[in-house]
Amino acid sequence: MQLTAHQIGLLLEGTVEGNPDVTVNQLSKIEEASKGSLSFLANSKYEQFLYTSGASVIIINEDFILAHPTKVTLIRVKNAYSAFSVLLEKYDELIKSKKSGVETPSFIHPSALIGKDVFIGALAYIGPNVKVGDGSKIYPNSYLADNVIIGKNVTIYAGVNVYFNCIVGDNVIIHSGAIIGGDGFGFVKDTEGSYKKVSQIGNVIIEDDVEIGSNTTIDRATMGSTIIRKGVKLDNLIQIAHNVEIGANTVIAAQTGISGSTKIGQNCIIGGQVGIVGHITIANGSTIGAKSAVNNTIKEENMSWNGFPLIPLRDSLKVQVLTRRLPELVKRIEELEDIIKKDLL
Fold first, then answer.
1. pLDDT above 90 covers what percent of the chain?
2. Helices (H), the chain
3. How many folded domains does the chain comprise?
4. Is the pLDDT confidence value at 142 over 70?
5. Residue 149 pLDDT
6. Is-catalytic flag, 175?
7. Which CATH number do you get for residue 120?
8. Same domain, yes or no, for 89 and 148?
9. CA distances from 187 to 44, 90, 126, 193, 222 (A)
10. Which member of 40, 67, 112, 204 lies 3.0 to 4.6 Å from 130 by CB, making a disulfide possible if both were Cys?
11. Is residue 201 within 8 Å of residue 162, measured between CB atoms?
């Protein structure tokens, strides 16, 4: 990829300051950039590098005021971080666009329907009645079981398993090691004390524009569907149990576990290592801090929560302050006890 500052400015609808004909051929972090690099400044902590960077072009916010002169060509945009992410996406598309066709050995069942411009990597398995939409990419060692439906422009990276009857929408990205549609954790105890498996006959539905991180597991429903709504972003190493529903545009960080039949609203933010019990509802717009434990339904929308047990974030911060003061408070109580004892004597 080689572009001029002028071309980048047009792509990002930005204003070029400096040499519009300078070219770049790589993307770099501002503190590591060299000649020919395109970088960006979105965090004020890195401002010092704006004046010392070896980059040829740097994207900055349109309202940024320079503290010192710089020889670097600048492109001013409304939001430098968002603008740079657009370039990263374009660069990523250029790399992926090289993949096409069917590699061998791989297995595609005769009843499978494969769309146009699809890539299927070596050792991939495409089962009976599978449908793969136009422009999708199925990387090596992936497994699509019977009756799976994959939408358009889906990227399924190496080693992903999608079990039978599951549905994946358009523009979805599933990273390596993810398992979609494994059995839910359903068992019943018999009269002899043994656990008998409850068959899990439902499926998983993943709507459009979802991204699923590496080694994340989404269990199929016992009956009906486990549903991941449009625009959800899931980090690595997340466990989503049977019959869970996650609302649109919710983001969940790594190592979070969500128990069965829980309904999470839209536009929620859930931190890492959060534990959520089953059969509860979490309101729209909820923000839950890392390592929190959600034991009950959250009814209030657009509130922030934290801790174990879960309490409103503001209260949690007060508790943390008081906890740090405990040694001081204990000492004061002991001093007051000594005073009272002396007065009683």
1. 79
2. 5-12, 47-50, 80-96, 313-324, 326-344
3. 2
4. yes
5. 98
6. no
7. 2.160.10.10
8. no
9. 53, 47, 30, 12, 11
10. 112
11. no
- 327 occurs within a structural domain: no
Are 53 and 31 in contact by the 8 Å Cβ rule? The answer is yes
Residue 236: inside a domain: yes
Unique residue bearing structure tokens 């519009």? 20
- In the chain, the N- to C-terminal Cα span, in Å, equals 87
Domain end among 96, 114, 145: 96
In terms of pTM, does the model score above 0.70?
yes
The CATH number for 72's domain is 3.40.1390.10
Average pLDDT over residues 152-164: 97
Query: Does residue 127 sit in the same domain as residue 84?
Result: no
179 and 87 part of one domain:
no
The pLDDT tens digits for 266-317 are 999 999 999 999 999 999 999 999 999 999 999 999 999 998 888 888 888 8
Number of H helices and E strands in the chain, helices first, is 5, 40
Residue 98, amino acid: K
Residue 162, SS3 per DSSP: strand
Q: What is the mean pLDDT of the chain?
A: 93
Which residues, 6 or more positions from 151, have their beta carbon under 8 angstroms from its beta carbon? 133, 136, 168, 169, 170, 171, 172, 208
Strands 15-17 and 73-77: antiparallel
Whether residue 117 sits in one domain with residue 92: no
Write out the two tokens for 204: 């998983």
Q: Tell me, what's the pLDDT at 309? A: 82
User: Among the options 6, 109, 175, 242, which is catalytic?
Assistant: 242
Same domain, 217 and 310: yes
Q: Is 138 helix (H, G, I), strand (E, B) or coil?
A: strand
